[in-house]
Every structure is written in structure tokens, then in C-alpha cells.
Amino acid sequence: MNFFKIIILLFFTLTNSIVHADNHDQKQEVLDKVDEIAKELENEEEVPLNDPFAGNEGTSSMSGNIPDDEQENELSLYNFKLAGLISGKDHSYISIVNSGGEVLTLTLGQFLGKIQLVDLRLTEAIFKKEDGKFMIIDFNNQVREADDY
Fold it and tell me: Which of 15, 59, 67, 128 could join 118 in a cystine, given CB atoms 3.0 to 4.6 angstroms apart?
């Protein structure tokens, strides 16, 4: 964004100065300003983009707390981020995104691997495990296990 502001400013400066420039000294002054701005642009650091779907373990809020059996499971809830919830009178859906950016949309009763989507709230989705316990994921990418919800 900053780059474009500088380019627009540079364009107006050049246009205004060249139109009103009567001699070689003024043109040289404008060229010096252009060189100065170009050097400033070269010195600016590029800011890396943050990809929310990168799946980088270093940015995962649950890294280190993932149970061993869940780490290798591609369909583990720990490998997804909650992207959206839609709750209606007749149907309710959630959208979750894996580290590759693939979106899965589940409705109540559907399975994600061995866990079943059983309920959702305003900010979280609740899954039931085979052993009767629950896994809850929220928009902060926090996955927690509970005996009830």
C-alpha cells in the first residue's frame, strides 16, 4: 500500500515539475528526487503475507498439546481451523479448513473421521468421539476435549 502512495506522489511530482520546468537545472532536480525516492523504495523491507491456512506448526495454538494418536491422523480436528458456522431452524452447517486450504462443510450428524458433529454454538462446533467424550473447536483454533458440553 505504501509503495503505491509513493508511486502516485512521484507521478504528480514529476508531472508538475516537468510541466513547469523551464531549464535543465529544474529537470535535473526532479531526476535527483526520483533517484532519492527509488533508493528509499529499495531500502524498505518487504512484509511477508500471513497465510491463515498455512498449517505451520509454529503458528498453531495447539502444537505440543496434540495427543500422539491425533498427530498422524489426517482427519484429526487438530489439523483444521473453524472458518464458519451457519445455524438455521432446519439445518446447521460448519466450514473447516485444513492446512492445504481445502474447505470441508459438515452438517449436524456428519462425521469427520471418527468424530461426529453433534452441535454448534455461536462461536464453536462440538464433535462427539467414539468413547462418548466431546471435542470442541472455536474460532481461535482452540481444540479442547470435555466430558460434556
Answer: 128
7-56 pLDDT, tens per residue?
A: 666 666 666 555 554 556 777 888 888 788 777 767 666 666 565 555 55
Angle between helices 2-20 and 24-43 (to 10 degrees): 170
8 Å CB contact between 134 and 146? yes
Are 116 and 128 spatial neighbours (Cβ–Cβ below 8 Å)? yes
Whether residue 56 is contained in a domain is answered as no
The single-letter code of the amino acid at 107 is T
Clarify whether residues 73 and 124 are in a common domain: yes
Q: For residue 61, is it within any domain?
A: no
* Tens digits of residue pLDDT in 65-110: 677 667 777 888 988 999 999 988 888 999 999 888 889 999 999 9
Cα 13-14-19 angle, rounded to 5 deg: 105
How far apart, in whole angstroms, are the C-alpha atoms of residue 143 and residue 141? Answer: 6
**Overall number of domains in the chain:** 2
Same domain, 32 and 73: no
